[in-house]
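Journal club prep — side note

Before the paper discussion, L.F. wants everyone to see what a predicted structure for a comparable chain looks like in token form. Sequence:
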Amino acid sequence: MNSIDAVDVGGKRVLVRVDFNVPLSEGTVCDDTRIRAALPTINYLRKNDAKVILMSHLGRPKGVGFEDEYSMAPVARVLSRILGEEVVYSPIVDNAEVRSMADQLKEGQVLLLENLRFDVREKENSSELAEELAQLADLYVNDAFGAAHRAHASVEAITRCLPSYAGLLMSLEINTLSSLLDAPERPFVAILGGSKVSDKIKIIDALLERVDVLMIGGAMCFTFLKAQGYEIGKSLYESDWEEKALQILQKAQERGVQLLLPLDVIAAPHFAEDAPTRIYSIDEMDSTMMGLDIGPASSTLYARAIGTAKTVFWNGPMGVFEFKAFESGTKAVAKAVASLQHNATTVVGGGDSVSALRSFGLEDKIAFVSTGGGASMQLLEGTPLPGVEALKARIND
């Protein structure tokens, strides 16, 4: 890809696709991580006298016009505070007034457009919308790795309308994640959690070609346990994926990959924060109980395996970490990964894993925290990302 730091941006209007899809509560930004992740590109452009025009989606509006709960106004306020100067905010995406605002920008000034998804054409990858957006600028930069797996107008179609470049965050994400595929230092340990095998099957298959150890937690472990004949009680599992789970176990054995499943689980009679809990080994599970976290023996096993690693990739919690009674497995994994701070390359991707790290105060002990859950998984499983492919196609233009 062409990178924005390889071109003269002085005096130019630069349209930047960022990922400001941040959590909001009563009109207030609850977590500014994604805003701060875009700062290297924003500040690079400002320092080099560009006129910066930012655009992003936020939430899932209907696409039929303005919806107050999904407005970018709160984001503009937070970004203004972070940058230390007022960000110009446009309450609409594109019209003559917005073009005038873009034209009047001073060098180093920042304009933030309203939520792209207020216009239904964004998700339709509309060439018409892309052309309208292109009228605002001289150059386009995609710095929204978290949206790179979407073929949307501001991600894919726009690259056919303007000279297009990768932002600094986009380049960092791709280089870091690609290094896991190309030349990981070994042992390479991968940790996967989450609820469904069906959601992770491609990444499991891809990682089995590369890792030395693959450990599985979260509800999806019960599909593997059930396939092997264990009693799993009322635990969540996918009955139509049992055969595939057995095939994965066989593939791991054939490739010499150590595939770790829980030795025990923390269970409750029902899904609730205050439900009574009990620890069961996997060969003595009560049929009336529901597994909601890996148990202490499993946590110890996983932590020891992580401790041997030189490269770690983690996606997905080990249990319902949002509930205090079921956070211990995820916390044990998070602490084990964080303990490698100076001795291994540690990469964490996925919203829930990142949330867990943050809740345990360990985020700053991870070498790289990806901003793209779905995008990072697609890249690692070998599925082309429309936003990345569009930038590659512009190299020889």
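L.F.'s comment for the group: DSSP finds 14 helices and 17 strands in the chain. Keep this in mind when we get to the figures.
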